Amino acid sequence: QAEGALEGATAGGDATVERRTIYYFTPDGTEDKATYTGDRWPVVLVPPGSRVVADPGLGVSASESPDGVLLVDGKPAYQYVGDADVDAGRGNGLGGVWFWFEVDESATPTQAPEAPAGPVIGGVVEVHVTATEVATPTGGTAMVLQAEGALE
Fold first, then answer.
1. pLDDT tens digits, residue range 22-54?
2. Does an H or E element contain 15, and which?
3. Beta strand pairing status for 51-54 and 125-135?
4. What pLDDT does residue 117 have?
5. Confidence at 128, pLDDT banded by 50, 70, 90
């Protein structure tokens, strides 16, 4: 899921700052370039000057592309506009080309550090990639990736 990312227009639609499940688009291949255009799948935008960190136990790498998009294992991360809340993962498998970043069931859901109370001056944003459990459309559950931002 993604939270703490930048809000704004992307070639794939309007990105939200709200926490959402993150997906990859198979036509992107292993390049670090997002190729989807339309209005249903915005990329996850990393705030300028932020760090991107993945929990060590997840077995994935997280980074930022040259154009400011969150990359997981070198693939651009997208949000799905049909996911209206934190527990949603409705985009998995759509069109046979959209899939959530799934992790091993043994991964323990974790939370990113909380933002400190009050205003932060000169704070650094950190985009923290962790695992969370979501319900699948078939009634099961899956461990998927979440990206969450925190100020320090």
1. 899 999 987 789 999 999 999 988 888 888 888
2. strand 13-15
3. parallel
4. 36
5. low
On average, the pLDDT of the chain sits at: 78
Q: Residue 89 above 80 pLDDT?
A: yes
What one-character DSSP code corresponds to residue 38? Answer: S
| Distance (Å, whole) CA 11 – CA 149 | 22
Q: DSSP string spanning 86-108?
A: TT--TTTTGGGTEEE-B--TTSP
Q: What is the residue whose two structure tokens read 């550090």?
A: 113
Query: Tokens 């993962």, residue?
Result: 89
Give the containing element (helix H, strand E) for 147. Answer: strand 141-151
**Distance between CA atoms of 8 and 75, rounded to whole angstroms?**
20
Cα–Cα nearest to 21, from 150, 129, 108, 151: 129
Pairwise CA distance, residues 43 & 124, whole Å: 21
Phi, psi of 80 (to 5 degrees): -115, 125
CA 78, CA 81: separation in Å to the nearest integer?
10
C-alpha torsion sign, points 18, 134, 43, 3: positive
What is the value of pTM for the model shown?
0.79
